[in-house]
């Protein structure tokens, strides 16, 4: 059995916040932000627009793209670090919003690596036979946990959601078969304090704000990303030359460029959305996938390499025959 991608979709809040507008709020400039990160603008959720709302829009877009009814979904895994509430899971709000009352829905938290972790989780459930069709969603409203007076972090993030529909299909198991070929997940909690939110129900009973030692994150990112991609190549017997599209977590253009360069992945194979979306954490990969599918770059049969690294640290890769 393989988990085959039936479709994908995404949603971005209407409001666009440009670097120039940010420069009127904190001591920064378009030039500084573009040079260090590649980010030009990001979308910001409206007041009253929650992570679940973004997720439901993205899920509906993915279902429409797959051409299937929501009632055929029996598993929802939603990756987020910005849930609507401490509990219940935002995934059950999405399940309810889609009118689904069967199967299971739960949240998964691995910060920026959340989508890759959610994809791997759903893949394992589908391959075990426990569920048949899954919605894997990454949805975030990071604007709500940013300290808008801290120029070192508030310029980096944006809001949005993306989703893919997976189906368990019997496959002979050849590399040319469609579906998820491999997933690799890693974490190392020694790095917790380099990227975290300084609040939470158990410690402070407040929501808190995102805090980051940017340089420390940067220092570890490329090595961790490339290690877990080499794991994917080794496990699947593929190499950089076999990859049609590289869809990395969109945190920073410099991290993406350096990772692609180190792995000998040609720049024209790299899908980049960080310029328009900023870092949308768990939503960034399905948002980028949706852009590249919609504009005709990613086609059925393409080999697509996903990668993410984020708070924890957590990091992971997935190799998908689209
Ligand atoms: N505008 C202008 N100046 C700024 C800004 C800003 N928005 N932010 C920081 N600066 C200043 C700093 O105050 C500092 O000034 P000083 O030298 O007078 O003290 C100077 O710029 C350099 O600051 P650094 O933090 O050392 O700058 P750096 O070159 O490391 O770039 C950045 C910062 C962009 C955050 C970088 O470290 C980075 O991208 N790190 C990776 C972190 C990342 O991508 N995190 C996303 C989440 S993690 C993930 O998703 C993988």
UniProtKB/TrEMBL annotation:
Key word Acetylation present: no
InterPro entries referenced in this protein's UniProt entry, alphabetically: ACP_syn_III_C (IPR013747), ACP_syn_III_N (IPR013751), FabH (IPR004655), Thiolase-like (IPR016039)
Cellular component GO terms held in the UniProt record: cytoplasm
Cellular location(s): Cytoplasm
GO MF term set: 3-oxoacyl-[acyl-carrier-protein] synthase activity; beta-ketoacyl-acyl-carrier-protein synthase III activity
Catalysed conversion reaction: malonyl-[ACP] + acetyl-CoA + H(+) = 3-oxobutanoyl-[ACP] + CO2 + CoA
Active-site residues from the entry: 112, 249, 279
Pathway given in the UniProt record: Lipid metabolism; fatty acid biosynthesis
Free-text domain note: The last Arg residue of the ACP-binding site is essential for the weak association between ACP/AcpP and FabH.
NCBIfam families for this protein: fabH (TIGR00747), PRK09352.1 (NF006829)
Record's function text: Catalyzes the condensation reaction of fatty acid synthesis by the addition to an acyl acceptor of two carbons from malonyl-ACP. Catalyzes the first condensation reaction which initiates fatty acid synthesis and may therefore play a role in governing the total rate of fatty acid production. Possesses both acetoacetyl-ACP synthase and acetyl transacylase activities. Its substrate specificity determines the biosynthesis of branched-chain and/or straight-chain of fatty acids.
Protein name, UniProt field: Beta-ketoacyl-[acyl-carrier-protein] synthase III
Gene field: fabH
């Amino acid at each position: 059995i393989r988990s085959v991608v039936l479709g994908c979709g995404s949603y971005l809040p209407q409001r666009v916040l440009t670097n120039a507008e940010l420069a009127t709020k904190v001591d920064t400039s378009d030039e500084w932000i573009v040079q260090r990160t590649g980010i030009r603008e990001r979308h910001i959720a409206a007041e009253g627009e929650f992570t679940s709302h973004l997720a439901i829009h993205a899920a509906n877009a993915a279902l429409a793209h797959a051409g299937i009814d929501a009632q055929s979904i029996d598993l929802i895994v939603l990756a987020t670090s910005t849930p609507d509430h401490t509990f219940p899971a935002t995934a059950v709000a999405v399940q309810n919003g889609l009118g689904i009352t069967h199967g299971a829905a739960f949240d998964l938290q691995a910060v920026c690596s959340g989508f890759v972790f959610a994809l791997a989780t759903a893949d394992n459930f589908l391959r075990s036979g426990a569920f048949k069709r899954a919605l894997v969603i990454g949805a975030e409203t990071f604007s709500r946990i940013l300290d808008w007076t801290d120029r070192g972090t508030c310029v980096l993030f944006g809001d949005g959601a993306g989703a893919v529909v997976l189906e368990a299909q019997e496959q002979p198991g050849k590399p040319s078969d469609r579906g998820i070929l491999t997933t690799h997940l890693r974490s190392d909690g020694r790095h917790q304090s380099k990227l975290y939110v300084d609040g939470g129900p158990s410690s402070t009973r407040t929501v808190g704000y995102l805090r980051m030692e940017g340089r420390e994150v940067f220092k570890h990112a490329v090595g961790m990303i490339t290690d877990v991609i080499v794991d994917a190549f080794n496990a699947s017997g593929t190499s950089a030359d076999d990859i049609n599209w590289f869809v990395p977590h969109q945190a920073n253009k410099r991290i993406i460029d350096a990772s692609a360069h180190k792995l000998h992945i040609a720049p024209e194979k790299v899908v980049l959305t960080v310029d328009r979306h900023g870092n949308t954490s768990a939503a960034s990969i399905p948002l980028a996938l949706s852009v590249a599918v919609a504009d005709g770059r990613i086609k059925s049969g393409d080999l697509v390499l996903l990668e993410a690294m984020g708070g924890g640290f957590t990091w992971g890769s997935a190799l998908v025959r689209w």
